[in-house]
Design a protein that fits this description.
Order of helices and strands: HEEHEEEEHEHEEEEHHHHEHEEEH
Helix content: 25-40%
Number of domains: 1
Structural class: alpha+beta
Strand content: 15-25%
CATH topology: Aminopeptidase
Strand order of the largest sheet: 1-12-7-2-3-4-13
Shape: globular
CATH class: Alpha Beta
Distance between the termini: 102 Å
CATH architecture: 3-Layer(aba) Sandwich
Largest sheet: 7 strands, mixed
């Protein structure tokens, strides 16, 4: 029978020895990365918002009543202001002074239902308050958003809630920030005035080429209407790439798109960050035949002549019907064109 082992009294009363915990460095690193990612998602938009120019764009006086949904007016300005000689050469803009519209687009976002992206032909022959009948482009002459909004509201009866403007250089910068856009041409497109020479087929366009693509109209048999179709196409493609998951998981791309867009845009004083975010998300919904409709303001005659110039006559009855559908939130019944 074995003898019991003697007890070492030096160990009596001491707590048991426990193994040391290994520091979870991997978990801490992951937590830090997640924290930085969340901070980036929040801080970049706030920083970018502070760089956006704000102006007093809304007219005074009698205006259409506010209705459900939100209507944005997006203007693509042909202003060369701020462009260097090298940038003008690269973009093929020339050095024409002043500030006119190359693009006039309405985006209506209903409280429920698909958003509607509506091109307004810049040669539309309308009543410009204080000037009589002129092309709608004249309402924005020398950069006058208030008169343009007055003209659109009087012509359509639709109240415009917010204003977004982008210039030549800003447009090209945004295209480059998303890595260009891919378009498919049924035939080659060559337009010296728009500074492009594109082959037929699918191809990626950088900022300068995309700018020429949306500006070209003299080699398009549809003229201003064909250009409007391409403008909506490219805007949708840009919005689709800008708010895609690839943007949100790539901090550098996220920052570049946010700051490029901020530097390119001018908005009305009443617009807030959430209004602009809603604008961008609605644009994406219209892209690629998604949950949205894309069309041109109804036209009665695209090749009319007035005062010795070529103009576009709107179909007033169909315009009223379209606006009625927008005011009633019946965008789901509209057809893309």
């Amino acid at each position: 029978m074995s003898q019991p082992q003697p007890i070492d009294r030096r160990l009596v009363g001491r707590p048991p020895v426990r193994p040391k915990k290994r520091r979870n460095w991997f978990g801490r690193v992951i937590g830090l990365v997640v924290l930085l990612f969340l901070l980036t998602l929040i801080c970049v938009p706030l920083y970018a918002w502070g760089r956006i120019d704000k102006i007093d764009a809304m007219p005074a006086g009698k205006r259409p009543a506010e209705g459900p949904g939100t209507t944005y007016l997006m203007v693509g300005s042909d202003s060369r202001e701020g462009l260097s000689a090298e940038e003008k050469r690269k973009l093929g803009t020339g050095s024409v002074g002043g500030n006119r519209t190359d693009t006039i687009i309405l985006l209506h976002v209903p409280d429920s239902g698909p958003p509607a992206l509506i091109s307004v032909p810049r040669d539309s022959w309308v009543e410009v308050p204080g000037k009589g009948r002129e092309k709608i482009n004249a309402a924005f002459g020398n950069g006058n958003p208030k008169l343009l909004i007055q003209t659109l509201e009087a012509s359509t009866g639709l109240r415009i809630d917010h204003y977004v403007e982008i210039g030549f250089g800003g447009f090209a910068s945004i295209i480059d920030s998303v890595g260009g856009v891919n378009v498919c041409l049924p035939k080659a497109m060559k337009d010296q005035k728009a500074h492009i020479n594109l082959p037929a087929g699918c191809q990626d366009l950088d900022g300068p080429k995309a700018l020429g693509y949306v500006r070209s109209r003299y080699t398009d048999k549809l003229g201003d209407l064909g250009r409007a179709n391409r403008q909506r196409e490219v805007i949708g493609l840009v919005a689709d790439k800008a708010v895609s998951w690839q943007t949100f998981v790539n901090p550098w791309r996220y920052y570049k798109i946010g700051t490029s867009s901020a530097d390119a845009l001018t908005v009305d004083n009443d617009m807030g960050p959430f209004d602009l975010a809603r604008f961008g998300l609605a644009m994406r919904k219209v892209a690629g035949g998604g949950d949205g409709v894309s069309l041109t303001l109804p036209v009665a005659n695209a090749n009319a002549r007035r005062n010795g110039q070529s103009v576009v006559l709107l179909d007033e009855a169909k315009v009223k019907a379209l606006v009625k559908a927008l005011k009633e939130g019946k965008t789901a019944g509209l057809k893309s064109s």
